[in-house]
Amino acid sequence: MKPFCRRLAIMLLVLGSSPLLAQQQIDVEDFDLSDYKGKVVYLDFWASWCTPCRASFPFMAEITGIHGDELAIVAVNVDEKPADALDFLKDYEVPFDVVFDHAGQLATEYKVPGMPTSYLFDRDGTPIGSHVGFRKKDMDAIREWIADAVSK
Amino acid sequence: MITQRIINMKSPTRLPGASRALITVAALTLLSGCSSLGVKPWERGTLAKPEMALDSQPVVSALDDHIYFSKEASSGGRSFGGGGCGCN
Fold first, then answer.
1. What span, in angstroms and rounded, lies between the C-alpha atoms of A64 and A71?
2. What is the ipTM of this complex?
3. Can you give the pLDDT at residue A17?
4. How far is A69 from chain B (nearest CA, A)?
5. A19-72 pLDDT, tens per residue?
6. Searching chain A, which residue's CA lies closest to the CA of residue B49?
7. Hey, where are the domains in chain A?
8. What is the DSSP pairing of strand A97-100 with strand A71-77?
9. Are strands A71-77 and A40-46 parallel, antiparallel or unpaired?
10. Nearest Cβ partner of A112 from B41, B46, B48?
11. Nearest residue on chain B to A106, judged by CA atoms?
């Protein structure tokens, strides 16, 4: 029993220190927007093959740092192969939740018009709006958009 | 007699009801056949792979274009932005 406990402790330590597991990873079946009630939610659909999504990850990490507990960023991955998503996540600091939607179930539900697309919800879960694509020139507008929702 | 013949020639030949129905069904099937071919924005992972690009080696094709331009004194014809005026 003792060696088993020690092995378990080492495993937890290794897993816990991995940046990949610093945030919650949720399967689409377990995802419920109402779990984030009381927080402004920024729901972002991304994929490993989507180039603008690479630019959006450092941005989302920065926004998380600014608003802390007031804002929940949920990044929904729509890669068909889970390994592609995990490889992508290794390259970035991900201090927010990631939902895996490999079959595109949630994407179909939201009728995602392009990649990436982000949706903003107020503290009650009511949609405020959406934003398609991610360009550097959009960053300030998105920052303001989120700050405005958080301040309400 | 001649008048009778002309009348016979002008009268349209009507297809039987079953054939008309069959042609209508076939036409509808063919016309709507391509209506659901769209790949959804989140399903473009395979299409986004470099090997799926129309021009997977842009450097090589740029070189080919340059050689073609030098040899033929004309350009364009294959994904080229110029108007063939030779002013590139």
1. 7
2. 0.74
3. 44
4. 29
5. 444 478 999 999 999 999 999 999 999 999 999 999 999 999 999 999 989 999
6. A49
7. 19-151
8. parallel
9. parallel
10. B41
11. B42
